[in-house]
Amino acid sequence: ELPERDDLPLAGRRVVITAGGTKEAIDPVRYLTNRSSGKMGYALAEAALAAGADVTLVAASKRPCSPAIRLVLAPSAKAMLAAVKKAMVGADAFIAAAAVSDFALAKPFDQKVKKTSPDAHLTLDLVQNPDILKTVGQQKQPGQVVVGFAAETENLLENAKKKLTSKGADLIVANDVLAPQAGFDKDSNQVTLVRADQAPVTVGPESKLAVAKKIIQELVRLLDQA
Ligand code: CTP
Ligand code: CA
């Protein structure tokens, strides 16, 4: 009889979660970003904490959260990768909920870019950012569990299955970002949990916290099997 096992299934487990849309500097006053609010990552951190985990949340931007969550602010993809690598040492699980900018400026401007003539064009040279989830997936240690998201506007399941393999993830949370009750800056979400040898399971539409709790339940199962 271990009553706390059911109440706090992640007691003694260390979970690292990313959240939010990264910001990639253009110049000292401007950046490139995307439409992610970070709400899903913060909801996952709260759900993991409620399940008894020791939680490190590596977030691109600050939102209110429980003081027991170890919040590490990392605005850019490069900063996020560095913070995640550090936090993953000895961790049991990684959940990549951040909307990481796929591109960053090859060389951000040192000074504010000024307007020149009225018809002037500005071309930005973008290079690919490091893939945080893939890096963690490739360096996965025995017993560790890696969960990724897939933000898709078409071919949801097909694209999610590809990401399961290419990222070395145990679970992909597939998000149809154009669905009416899913996606950016909403308080609700609808996702499909995609695993290698199981039929996809749809969760929601319901609050992001309710969806997060179900993802954490799945994480508990994966950790028990790992
Ligand atoms: N991800 C990441 N680092 C990146 C890009 C994505 O960690 N540089 C993670 C996201 O946090 C998410 C997963 O990878 O968990 C999938 O992100 P998504 O944008 O859907 O896929 P990409 O691999 O970036 O491919 P694409 O955007 O071309 O579909
Ligand atoms: Ca992407």
TrEMBL record:
<comment type="function">
    <text>Catalyzes two sequential steps in the biosynthesis of coenzyme A. In the first step cysteine is conjugated to 4'-phosphopantothenate to form 4-phosphopantothenoylcysteine. In the second step the latter compound is decarboxylated to form 4'-phosphopantotheine.</text>
</comment>
<feature type="binding site">
    <location>
        <position position="149"/>
    </location>
    <ligand>
        <name>CTP</name>
    </ligand>
</feature>
<keyword id="KW-0285">Flavoprotein</keyword>
<keyword id="KW-0479">Metal-binding</keyword>
<comment type="similarity">
    <text>In the N-terminal section; belongs to the HFCD (homo-oligomeric flavin containing Cys decarboxylase) superfamily.</text>
</comment>
<keyword id="KW-0288">FMN</keyword>
<feature type="region of interest" description="Phosphopantothenate--cysteine ligase">
    <location>
        <begin position="15"/>
        <end position="226"/>
    </location>
</feature>
<keyword id="KW-0456">Lyase</keyword>
<dbReference type="GO" id="GO:0004633">
    <property type="term" value="F:phosphopantothenoylcysteine decarboxylase activity"/>
</dbReference>
<keyword id="KW-0460">Magnesium</keyword>
<feature type="binding site">
    <location>
        <begin position="130"/>
        <end position="133"/>
    </location>
    <ligand>
        <name>CTP</name>
    </ligand>
</feature>
<comment type="pathway">
    <text>Cofactor biosynthesis; coenzyme A biosynthesis; CoA from (R)-pantothenate: step 2/5.</text>
</comment>
<keyword id="KW-0436">Ligase</keyword>
<feature type="binding site">
    <location>
        <position position="163"/>
    </location>
    <ligand>
        <name>CTP</name>
    </ligand>
</feature>
<keyword id="KW-0511">Multifunctional enzyme</keyword>
<comment type="function">
    <text>Catalyzes two steps in the biosynthesis of coenzyme A. In the first step cysteine is conjugated to 4'-phosphopantothenate to form 4-phosphopantothenoylcysteine, in the latter compound is decarboxylated to form 4'-phosphopantotheine.</text>
</comment>
<feature type="binding site">
    <location>
        <position position="167"/>
    </location>
    <ligand>
        <name>CTP</name>
    </ligand>
</feature>
<keyword id="KW-0210">Decarboxylase</keyword>
<comment type="pathway">
    <text>Cofactor biosynthesis; coenzyme A biosynthesis; CoA from (R)-pantothenate: step 3/5.</text>
</comment>
<comment type="similarity">
    <text>In the C-terminal section; belongs to the PPC synthetase family.</text>
</comment>
<feature type="binding site">
    <location>
        <position position="102"/>
    </location>
    <ligand>
        <name>CTP</name>
    </ligand>
</feature>
<feature type="domain" description="DNA/pantothenate metabolism flavoprotein C-terminal">
    <location>
        <begin position="10"/>
        <end position="221"/>
    </location>
</feature>
<protein>
    <recommendedName>
        <fullName>Coenzyme A biosynthesis bifunctional protein CoaBC</fullName>
        <ecNumber>4.1.1.36</ecNumber>
        <ecNumber>6.3.2.5</ecNumber>
    </recommendedName>
</protein>
<feature type="binding site">
    <location>
        <position position="112"/>
    </location>
    <ligand>
        <name>CTP</name>
    </ligand>
</feature>
<dbReference type="GO" id="GO:0004632">
    <property type="term" value="F:phosphopantothenate--cysteine ligase activity"/>
</dbReference>
